[in-house]
Amino acid sequence: MHSFYFLTISDNYLSLSYRQLAISCLLILINVALSLRLRLGLERNLLVASVRMVIQLLLIGYVLEWLFALSDPFSVLAIALLMAGIAGISSVNRTSRRFSGIYWQSLLSVLVASFFVTNLSVAGIIQVKPWYNPQYLIPMLGMILGNTLTGISLGLERFMEGLVINRHGIETLLALGATRWEATHREIQIAVKTGMIPTINSMMVMGLVSLPGMMTGQILAGASPIDAVRYQIVIVFAIASASALGTIGVVLLAWHTLLSPNHQLRSDRLR
Length: 271
Fold this sequence. Notes:
Helices cover 77% and strands 0% of the residues. The protein has 271 residues and is an all-alpha fold.
């Protein structure tokens, strides 16, 4: 029953034409007009973001149509690796500090967390056959990657800032005989909590304040609301799991780099 609703479109589904998409641009133009009238300075950012979003979504739409028709495991894997690579780089680009190896650590954390959780969800829970069916794998991986990227970025930023701000306190603890784990455990704890804030906040209000995009899209396409909710629960648990794994992984890798085995803080590696 789940597969039926996910793969088919109801007779009540209303397809949108490009003319209707063009009319929807008026909604953004209202915001641009308000920005100009009130001199908010947001008009350029709104227009650039809108154009980028439209181009990116239309391009990915054509790529996905080609991919769905091809249904080749190597092509699906190549697209998945490309998506993970962009996510790994983007998560570091959002941080204000860097150290040698930070991009590889971010990429490794993204790959392990998102691929493990996505494959477990698609093949183990939803039981898609074949496992590489792009209609399931690519959308789920995309949602998981987007949220894992945010968690990794926030966790990394908070951990590095915590080491810089509390440098003297950490070095004092190390000088008094604390291990590197004991001296920095609080920074690790705060960094992982920070990375998980968006996911936990979203889960707390889901269904009361917000209706998730995936669930809304399925309902608009004609799926049963109860089936859409079941899929949404699976994907939210997958997102929370991958975000936690990715954030913990990247923070621990950064911790291993910035605190030597001799229990010394290597803040000189930060730039």
